[in-house]
Specification:
heterodimer; A: 339 residues; alpha/beta; Nucleotidyltransferase, domain 5; 2 domains; five-stranded mixed beta sheet; 10 helices; 18% strand; globular; B: 138 residues; seven-stranded mixed beta sheet; 7 strands
């Protein structure tokens, strides 16, 4: 018998719903992108809160796009945390209500675990290669920079993490210092393509173990520009591409040096990246080059599954369903970062 | 009477942090003013250490709120309203559930949501000087 999971994600900015059957994606809808089209441009005004407005149309669109009926669902998976409590409550309450009405189980999902399991989402038409256990996953996003040792689908251990700013935050905040709009990470990636990455050098942190620190880089970037701008008010405009390329190289070096150290220490050659920053072309390129040198097999999920999305919640729900790990109705959301 | 500390290096921070930690009562809303890179998160990290937080204290800029536990089981919320565009977003995620939970809250970039700040707050100012030292006042 097939296992069909509806996933609901509402941990941060965007509401999203997805349907996965036996590990294969059938639909993945993110509010504000596809909903207006699939819902004929009309999003009902259900309540004032952003997720409350979108959760019903988003789930409806995901079910329709999957071409299934609600009665075919085996379980409803929802993000339990970490995230904003008010936002999580919308997704979890809706999941509970729908599951009760359909008389099927609910499954709570850890957002960070889901980011990693996004690597295992299969497409209907072709087989996606997946890493062998144990593997190392570099989870990099606006809010996370972690090295995770993945022992099995549901057994993960964070072996390194940022002690201050996340890598995505370093991109965004340094972009802000240069006067670029938020979020500036993708813009830095774009301008960096035409820049000289060796033109400027910025301080790299000396951190024990596999932990990261990006706060010092932000501050040294701030001091550097402040001092240059006193001599030349047009310094940023004249050097934008080189600044972006040099900064991006620094962040990537910091990220990958620790990953390389962890892979060597643990003797692991299966390497994956996940999270929003894995869309950064510079990171993908350097990682691919490093893979050849280090004899790594590298796994990078499609961009659509790297930002916050429900497909990763549904795939996690699928593995938890197989393992018989279900949630209870009195389970409440959490905002603490644990995996 | 305000306390003022001139922070020349990171080594000067623990003393200021201990002083602030001693001033905080459980349930207080502690707001931090200072430009980007002034050291708001770094200072919260140090104060949390004085309060025996067991979790890693890192920047909540993206998550908007981080939750930490202390050794004796207290909860501390650490906010950053940097990404918040208007006060409606704060209402949307349910800030009241945190602010009025009876747990201590640290708040970075409170000026983004000035209208929802309670009257009785502990205000901390961090000024980045031209010689890269900081003046911390609270």
């Amino acid at each position: 018998m097939s296992i069909t999971i509806l996933g609901i994600e509402s941990s941060c900015d965007d509401t999203s719903a997805a349907v996965i059957r036996d590990g294969v994606i059938l639909s993945n809808v993110v509010a504000g992108q596809d909903v207006h089209i699939t819902y004929g441009g009309v999003v009902p005004e259900l309540a004032s809160r952003a997720h409350q407005q979108s959760v019903v149309p988003v789930v409806d669109a995901a079910i329709k796009a999957a071409g299934i009926d609600c009665s075919e669902l085996s379980a409803v998976a929802f993000t339990r945390g970490p995230g904003l409590l008010g936002s999580l409550l919308v997704g979890s309450s809706f999941a509970k209500g729908l599951a009760r009405a359909l008389d099927i189980p609910i499954i709570d999902v850890n957002h960070l675990q889901a980011h990693v399991l996004a690597l295992f989402i299969q497409q209907p038409d072709k087989k996606t290669d997946t890493p062998r256990f144990p593997f190392l996953c570099l989870l990099v996003s606006g809010g996370n920079s972690q090295i995770i040792l993945v022992k099995s689908e549901l057994d993960m251990e964070v072996i390194g993490q940022t002690i201050d700013d996340a890598a995505g935050e370093a991109f965004d905040k340094c972009a802000k210092i240069m006067g670029l709009p938020y979020p500036g990470g993708p813009l830095i990636d774009k301008y960096a393509l035409d820049g000289d990455a060796t033109k400027f050098e910025f301080a790299k942190p000396r951190m024990e173990g596999y932990n990261y620190s990006f706060s010092g880089l932000k501050t040294s970037f701030l001091y550097f520009l402040r001092d240059r701008l006193i001599e030349n008010p047009d310094f940023i405009q004249q050097n934008l591409a080189d600044l972006c390329a040099s900064l991006q190289k620094t962040i990537i070096d910091i990220l990958l040096n620790k990953l390389k150290k962890a892979a060597k220490d643990l003797n692991i050659n299966q390497i994956a990246i996940a999270g929003g920053v894995s869309a950064n072309s510079g990171l993908r390129n350097v990682l691919t080059q490093m893979a050849v040198k280090q004899r790594w097999e590298v796994f990078i999920p499609p961009v659509a599954y790297t930002t916050d999305n429900a497909a990763m919640v549904a795939i996690t729900g699928y593995y938890r369903f197989i393992a018989g790990q279900f949630a209870t109705y009195d389970m409440t959301p959490f905002s603490r970062t644990v995996i | 009477m305000n306390d003022t500390f001139h922070i020349k290096t990171l080594h000067d921070l623990p003393l200021a942090a201990a002083k602030l930690a001693a001033k905080i009562n459980q349930g207080d809303i502690v707001v931090l003013y200072g430009t980007m890179g002034a050291g708001k998160t770094t200072f919260v990290k140090e104060v949390c250490q004085c309060m025996n937080v067991v979790d890693t204290v890192n920047s909540p800029s993206y998550a908007i709120v981080n939750e930490y536990s202390t050794k004796n089981g207290q909860t501390i919320y650490h906010f950053d309203f940097y990404r918040i565009k208007n006060v409606i977003e704060a209402f949307d995620f349910g800030y009241e559930d945190y602010f009025y939970s009876g747990n201590t809250c640290f708040v970075e970039w409170p000026e983004r949501v000035a209208e929802i700040m309670p009257d009785d707050i502990v205000a901390v100012n961090i000024q980045l000087q031209n010689d890269n030292t900081r003046i911390i006042t609270f």
